[in-house]
Every structure is written in structure tokens, then in C-alpha cells.
Amino acid sequence: MGNTYTNYTVHGPSQQEVVKGLAGRTAIVTPAVQGCVVVFEEQSDKLLQAAVPAFALQWSEAFACPVLGIMNYDDDVLWYRLYIRGQKVDEYASWIGIAGHPRVPRGGDAEKLCRAFGSSNVNEVESVLRKPSEGKDSYAFAVDRHADLARALGIPAFGVGAGYGSVADGELPDDLRPEDLVEVT
Predict the structure, then answer these.
(1) Structural domains in the chain (count)
(2) Of 89, 61, 95, 50, nearest to 76 (Cα)?
């Protein structure tokens, strides 16, 4: 079984602002890097895709900022929704599993993603989004696509391969120390 995780990259507010806004939820918040914090939220990690829209919408509206909700399911599918100021502006799935059809990416707007996170790498982001999930020159694992997307957008890689469960269990992403994290309960 491959990686399965959910997390959120919030662009704009500080770590402490996000922590204050998470009152009543169980979560772990990274420090701000390049203007972004990554949130690992317990309920989302359990419910996966069903919880992403509500949380991303809520925080993009509350903080008037971009929020990228990411889900990696079993390292087969990378799915995201991008919300800006309370509006869903983009959605993506690395493949839609329909019997008899090739696994091709659906959705995703490289320009919107780059604009939301201040990246000028539109062509690189587009390449990451369009690369197939199977066949020659494909992504074998969704976590690799997520890593390349984070790198191209210039957002922290803290969320790559990590969700609430793994971080709470001490499996920290590279360059992240326990004392850098704020736990919310």
C-alpha cells in the first residue's frame, strides 16, 4: 500500500494566525516558509477527500488567502482543490479511474496555481500536471508528482508525503524539527 495523506498549504497568514484560527480542531501547523504554512488536520486525514473542500474553503475565506488542499490516495492519485478568498478556483486529479480508459490527468490550471503562490514557473507546473500516471515517462507514484509540484510552485515541501497521522507519530518531513511545530487540540 502506498502513501495516503491529506494536508493544506495556506499562503499569507503566519503560523500563529493559522493556529488561532484552528480553535476546536486537532491539527499540527508548520512554521511559515516562503509565505506559506502547512496544516496537518486530524479529521481531514481520516476523511480524506470529503473533508478537504470544507476546510480549504473556510480558511481561504477567513484569511482572504489562497489555500491548496492536497490529497494523495494510496500513491495512485494526487488530487487538489485551490481556494482563493472563499471561492474554489481550480481542481485537479492526476487520473480518473474509469475502466477501459487511459489514466490521464483531469483539470488543473498552472497559471492559477502559479499566480496564487507567486511562482513564475507556469511551464514547469503545467508539465507536472500533465505528465501521465502510467506508461513511458510517467509518475509511478503520486508523492513524486506532489514533490515536483511543490518544488515548481516554490511552496514548502513539508506536506509532501505527510499527513496528520504520520506527523503526529513523529515521522517528520525533511527540514522540519519537532520544536518548529505547533500542535492544536
Answers:
(1) 1
(2) 95
Task: Quickly list DSSP for 4-73.
Answer: -EEEEEEESS-HHHHHHHTTTS-EEEPPPBTTEEEEEEHHHHHHGGGTHHHHHHHHHHHTTSEEEEEEEE
67 domain residue, yes or no? yes
Residue 54's contacts (CB-CB under 8 Å, 6 or more residues apart) are: none
* Tens digits of residue pLDDT in 12-27: 999 999 999 998 889 9
Report the pLDDT value the prediction gives residue 49, as an integer from 0 to 100.
63
Mean pLDDT to the nearest integer, 67-86: 94
CA atoms within 13 A on the CB side of 132: 9
User: Is 176 domain-assigned?
Assistant: no
CA distances from 47 to 4, 5, 59, 95, 185 (A): 11, 10, 18, 20, 18
pTM above 0.70, yes or no: yes
Question: Could you tell me if residue 179 is inside a domain?
Answer: no
Mean pLDDT of the chain: 91
Region 138-142 average pLDDT: 91
- Do the domain assignments include residue 91? yes
Domain of 16?
Answer: 5-171
Helix (H, G, I), strand (E, B) or coil at 182: strand
Residue 98 pLDDT: 59
How crowded is residue 61: how many other Cβ atoms within 10 Å of its Cβ?
15
